[in-house]
Amino acid sequence: MRARSWRVRHWSVRHAALLARVYDAFEAMLVAAAPLLARVGYIRLEHPFAFVERQVKGALFDCRMCGDCVLSSTGMSCPMNCPKGLRNGPCGGVRPDGACEVDPQMPCVWVKAYEGSRRMREPKRIEAPLPPVDQRLKGSSAWLRAARRRAGGEAA
Ligand code: SF4
Fold first, then answer.
1. What is the mean pLDDT of residues 95-123?
2. pTM for this model (two decimals)
3. Which ligand 1 atom sits nearest the alpha carbon of residue 62?
4. CA-based radius of gyration for the chain
5. Residue to probe by mutation, ligand 1, list 64, 86, 110, most atoms within 8 Å of CB
């Protein structure tokens, strides 16, 4: 089961550029639909959006629904899968073969992040320090928040 989820994760990293383009198109659609979304109500939409996001990103990235998504900066490798929860690059314990220090069966998520970032339109984005994860957002929809922010609405 774990090996299967890593295979999918690694597929996502290999196809980081494609997934970034798909996400950009999806976000543009949400931004265009902002007046409608606002009429329905972002609070009312939160639960269904979070549900769908959990299914889709869970399957593709082993998403942990931190609510503070940084995949576009990490080559489509979710840093929340790091056993040490590191959001700004690997610890000093990466093994010579690129495996995780804690779980030698698992490739380091940051080695994968670097590989994925080379395929992204802005490969240097991975070099910018990320703020600590905002724990208040855990479980919420990062999609809805990002689209709302881009549409100029308030986003918690
Ligand atoms: S960074 Fe957060 S929202 Fe993005 S895939 Fe990882 S756990 Fe999910």
1. 96
2. 0.90
3. 5
4. 16
5. 64
Q: Which atom of ligand 1 is nearest to the CA of 70?
A: 1
Would you say residue 133 has pLDDT above 80? Answer: yes
Measured by CA distance, the residue closest to atom 5 of ligand 1 is 63
Question: CB neighbours of 80 closer than 8 A, spacing ≥ 6?
Answer: 63, 64, 66, 133
Q: Which is nearest to 146 in space by CA: 31, 29, 35, 63?
A: 31
135-153 average pLDDT score: 92
In tens, the pLDDT along 38-50 reads 999 999 999 999 9
Residue 66 CA: which ligand 1 atom is closest? 2
What is the chain's mean pLDDT, rounded?
Answer: 94
CA of 75 to the centre of ligand 1 (A): 12
**Helix-helix angle 2-14:109-117, to 10 degrees:** 20
Q: What is the DSSP letter of 129?
A: P
In the chain, what are the domain boundaries? 2-150
